[in-house]
Amino acid sequence: MKIEVGEEGTQNEIRESSLDPAKVADVGDLDDDGRPKRTGMFPPGVGYEEKLSGTLWTASAHIITAVIGSGVLSLAWCIAQLGWIVGISTLLIFSCITLYTSNLLAECYRSGGTATAKRNYTYMDAVKANLLWGKNQSGGRMNIACGLAQQANLNGLVVGYTITAAISMVAIRRSNCFHERGHEALCQFSSKPYMIGIGALQIILSQIRNIEDLWWLSLVATITSFGYSSIGAGLALATIVSGHGKRTTPTGIEVGAGITAAQKMWRMFTAFGDIAIAYTYSPVLIEVQDTIKSTEGENSKVMKKANIISVSATTVFYLMCACFGYAAFGNYAHGNMLTGFGFYEPFWLIDIANIFIVLHLLGAYQVMAQPVFGTVESCIKRRWPNSKFVNKEYPVKLLGPKSLNFSINLLRLSWRSMYVVVATSVAVGFPYFNEVLALLGAVSYWPLTVYFPVAMFIARKKIDRGTLKWFALQLLTMVTLLLAIAAACGSIEGFGEALHIFKPSLIEK
C-alpha cells in the first residue's frame, strides 16, 4: 500500500500489520515515515483496549528478556575461574561497555540525528545508512557483514534456548526423583521429548505478529528471570549463612591436582566470553526501539533510559548470583546452580526456579526469533506485494474479551512453523549445540556490540583520525576484539571437550 505524506507527497510504504488499510484514512493515523502511528495503542477500529506497548517499561522488559538468560546461573562458575578481583571487575567493565555502545547504537535509529530524520527499522538498515563503504557510499558490504553476524547470533540463540529450556524441564523431573529415591540415585532422563514439546508450543507463540505484540510475554519473561535469579542467589546465600560455604581465593581455581595451567587459561578465556555474551542484546536493540511510541522528543532518549534501567538491573542480579554462588560453592562451582544440582533441597523451590527458567526462555526465544521472521517476511512482501497468501489477515474472534481476538496470516503460519520445526530438529539432533552457540556468541559479540556502534558513531560525528577521542574509541574496539578472540579460542577448546563427552551419548536411554 502507498500513501502520500507531507507537503512534497513523499511516498512511504506502510509495514504490514493487522491494521486494515481502509481504516488509515488520514495522515493523523500515521507516523512521519508513513507507517501506522506508534501510539502505545492497538490499531484503531479493532476494538481493543489500550495496552502498555511501545513505552520505556516495555522496551526495558524486552531488553531484560533478551539479555538475562539462564546463563546468569553460570556466572558463579565464571568467578571461580577468574577469582574475586578479576571476576567482579570483568562483570562491571562489560556492563559499562554494553551500556555505552548500546547508547551509541540507539542514536543510529534515525539516520540524520534529528527527531524527523529517516528511521532505520533494523540493525542492518542502521549500518547501511550510517556507514560509508567504497565509491557508492552505500555501506553495502558492511550491511551484509552485519546481517550475517546478526542472523548467526539470533538463529543460534533460538536453538540454544530450546536445548536449555528442555534441560530445565529434565531438571524438574530429576529433582523430584532425587527427593524420592535419595541423592545418590541414578536419575537420568532424555531431554528430546521436552524439546519436541517446546517446539510445538513455539509454533503457536510464533504466530504473534511482531515484537511489539510480545509485550505481555516479555513482561512474564522479565518477572520469571528475576524469580529464578533470586531463588538461585537466595539458596546460595542460605548455604553461606549456614556455614557450608566452600573455599574461595582471590585468583579463582588454582593450578594443581585436577587442573593444568593450560586448562586454567582456557577456562579463563571461556569465562571472559561467557560474561561478555551475558550482556549482549544489540542484535535486537534497533527492533525494540522501533516499537517505542511516537513522542514529541527523540525516542533515542527513551531508549537510552531503557538501556540504563535494563543494564543496571541486570548487573545487580548478575553480581548477586555470581558472588553468592561462588561463595557457596567455591572454586568448584557448578556450570548451572539449578540444573547442575548444586542444590537438592528444598526440591519444590528448585522446581519453581526451573519452571521460571522455562517460562523465561519461551519469551526470550520469541524476542530473538521475531527479527528473523521480520527480515524474511519483509523480503517476501516486497517480492509479492499483491499476494493474498502473503498479505491477507484472517480475523479469529473468540468468546470473551475482545482483547483475546487475533488474526491468522497464511505466510506467517506456514513459514514460521517450518522455521520452528527446523530449529527444534537441530536441537534434538545436535545435543552439544550450546558449545557451538558459545563460539557463535564469541564471534558475533565484537562486531554487533562494539565495532558497528563505534564505527557508526565515528561516521555520524565525523570524528577525525588521530584525535584523542578517535584513539580512545579505537582502543575500546581493539581491546574487546582481543577478548572476543580469546573467548572464541576458549569456546573451540570447550567444543572439542564436549564433542568427546557427548559422542557416545547421542542415543539416550
Overview of the structural elements:
The protein has 509 residues and is mainly α. The protein is built from 14 helices and 4 strands. Strands 1-2 form a two-stranded antiparallel ribbon. It has a two-stranded antiparallel ribbon with strand order 3-4. The longest helix has 42 residues, at 140-181. It is globular. The model is unreliable at 1-27, 40-52 and 503-509 (pLDDT under 50).
Provide a quick synopsis of the model.
With 509 residues, the protein is mainly alpha-helical.
- Relative strand content: under 5%
Structural class: mainly alpha
Radius of gyration: 24 Å
- The average pLDDT is 80
Count helical runs. Answer: 14
Following the backbone from N to C, one meets helices and strands in this order, namely EEHHHHHHHHHHHEEHHH
User: Helix amount, in percent?
Assistant: 55-70%
The N- and C-terminal alpha carbons lie at a distance of 55 Å
- Biggest sheet architecture: 2 strands, antiparallel
Number of strands: 4
Biggest β-sheet: strands ordered side by side in the sheet: 1-2
Low-confidence stretches: 1-27, 40-52, 503-509
| Shape summary | globular
Q: How are the SSEs placed, and which strands pair?
A:
Blueprint: E1 2-5, E2 10-13, H1 56-67, H2 75-106, H3 123-130, H4 140-181, H5 192-205, H6 215-241, H7 261-278, H8 285-289, H9 299-329, H10 347-383, H11 388-391, E3 393-396, E4 406-409, H12 410-429, H13 433-461, H14 468-502
Antiparallel strand pairs: 1-2, 3-4
Helix pairs in contact: 1-6, 1-9, 2-7, 2-9, 2-13, 3-4, 4-5, 4-10, 4-12, 4-13, 5-12, 6-9, 6-10, 7-13, 7-14, 13-14
